[in-house]
Protein 1
Amino acid sequence: MRTTEPTVAEGGAAPAERPRDAGMSLAELMVALGIFTLILVVVGSTAVAAIRTVGGMENRVDNAAQAELGLSSMSKVLRTAVLPQQLDAGSCPTCADVAVTLATATQVTFHANLGRSSIGPSLVTLSVLQDPAKPGTAILEQRTIDPTPGASGSYTFCTPGSGGCRVERRVLARSLVWPTAAVFSYYDTDGVLMTGSSLSAVQKAKISSVDVVLTAQTRPGQDRWPPFTAVQRIRLPNVEISSTITE
């Protein structure tokens, strides 16, 4: 069988073919490493940016959910504020004849028509307290005391901490900013802000509405994602009740 020999270029020997398993040259290896490093940097930067974006969104959603949930729950209870004598029930000889019995920047106590008792209103306290389970944060707590029946259809309210006094506690919101600024602000029937660390009896009788400000930060101790603040003005029914009784 006839075979052909590789032709020899004129004036020189035939060029040697490069072996297929000779590998990469140093220059090719450096170029490949450079491209691979560039790809890693781009992918890593994109991943970090995506993680931060997702984390920020989750934090904002958590903050908004806590503040809005607390505000919604609180407003429902505050709107039940009522004068004790307005209810067609028993009398309370030791109760002040006002809807709101205590009004400070971080706590409000009032008679509430929750329908839990047939003899009178409940005594509800809304307050912002430091959360013992999560340092650096606060909780919005609701404490409810039902009336204790007395003689001749009368009723009283027990003192929290005393023997046999049943206080129902409910957490309306968690992860609030602590130490907290003013949560409650009180306005009279003319829309004028009432000032003072604790309102007097005369001021409490004139409370028409309450401004509530709740600020939530589910990840305390960092400033990358700001807290969320929810604000609402809540109208109280005791103003109309007081006006009707006075007339």
Protein 2
Amino acid sequence: MPKQIHPLSDVHSENIGNNTQIWQFSVVLKGAIIGDNCNINCNCFVENDVKIGNNVTIKSGVQIWDGITIEDNVFVGPNVTFTNDLIPRSKVYPLRFMKTTIKKGASIGANSSIICGITIGENSLIGIGSVVTKDVPPFTVWYGNPARQVGRINLEGKIEKF
């Protein structure tokens, strides 16, 4: 199935995989790479130096800035906030934006904030409203402000709390 781009979106990238849907009022800049079978909900923004893998769901209201890589099978909940500059200033840009990686199978709950320069591990789970300020190991469950590990999660989605 070919990609489906809503006529009310503003998509400049040619690097969008098959069966990917991009909904209304979303903007995708020219350099972005988006894999197969993704769902980019309405009111999202995807900057140039962004890589999104296959089977990724990005819910409404998410901005994905330069330097962010999202691997396969990731879920990003509504209004998740990513950053790419630890010391942002108006009209002052770093030579290079910080890199953030969301590893395959991870899920990030609604309204979470992800500081730049970290890795969220494979199949980990970030609870809603969390503020993630450091690397998250694979197969772990985190929530809170600042987010702390509260358990482990297996491939079937079963959570074992501490």
Protein 3
Amino acid sequence: MISATAVLQSRFDLGHELVGVSDARRHARDVLCEWGMPDEVLDDALSIVTELVANAIRHAETGESRPRHSPLSSVLELRVVVGHLYVVVHDASRRAPILRPLSEDAENGRGLLLVAALTEGAWGFVYATHGAGKLVWARLSLPRAATDGVAPDSVPAADQADQLPRSVVAVGAGT
């Protein structure tokens, strides 16, 4: 069981090859299981990790909108803050993630639709304030059963519950 006020954080540095996606999934599964994440959240989180990390690596490889001397690697962060799990991916690209309309002919481009559906629209991005690139984030609510047993006075006010963890600002899609 996770405390409603728990602040948990994990950071995983990714390479610039697509093998990083499976490494990121493995890392996320290990960390989230260690944190006692409920199965329904775990499955959704792993799908989100897959999509966001694949996008970060794919766009870093192309070098599109990436400053010339920026590193190619990306970073995955997992955070539990005030009853929510955040999946945050930092990459070196300045290219904004675009939620494309569903197309039967498209061979790719459905990943952000999946992220939007799994998070009920609670996702977005912000350009990095220090260094290059951007942060793409997705927020999953933890089920009440996962945070039961917490004293009511220890749960932050509703206006605090919707705040993103430090370094993530609510801009872009899903806000």
Protein 4
Amino acid sequence: MFTFKQVLYKDILNIDELHIDEKSITALIGESGTGKSTLLKLMNHLIACTDGTISYKGTPVEELDAVKLRRDAAMLSQTPVLFGETVRENLEAGLLFSEKTLPSEKEMIDAMQRYYLEKNLDDKADKLSGGEQQRLALARITLLDPEVFLLDEPTSALDDELEHDVMERFMAYAQDNEKTVIFVTHSQSIAEEFSDTIIDITPYSKKGRD
């Protein structure tokens, strides 16, 4: 699905060749500052590589319509971005952006409950804790239903038990719906339990290639 060939990005990433399969679950691990988040941003062309080629389904990402690519390969940052004032507005935001039919109230509530988030749709989103905002963002991107999920430490604000349970629920959804998932995690155990492939990104300064 994604193929990297001779990819350079500043002094952060240097990748000879990397292929990520469709309908697979890939975990990115490594020390802070090694380029894990950068790798995600390169995949949906939020940033452009300094050199080399990144292809999505055989086409270089720079040749694809950026908006369509980001609808197909949706990214969730580690610090959730809020859209609008209420929980409802946040859950609808991705679908509005993608020009898709808005979810019913039941679909929105079900999406939140999947990740153990019990909130009213009219609650103020900025009053939620960091962990609640992360789960709201997971519910939002699940409702968006992209082909590829690019997740940057989506459960980092949760305690270990809740992190495990939320990831278990999300990965069950992804596998049932044949999604491709590429996620950054700080947890070796989460990576080992929930991914098909683990990519350990080591510091660029200590090696020739990622």
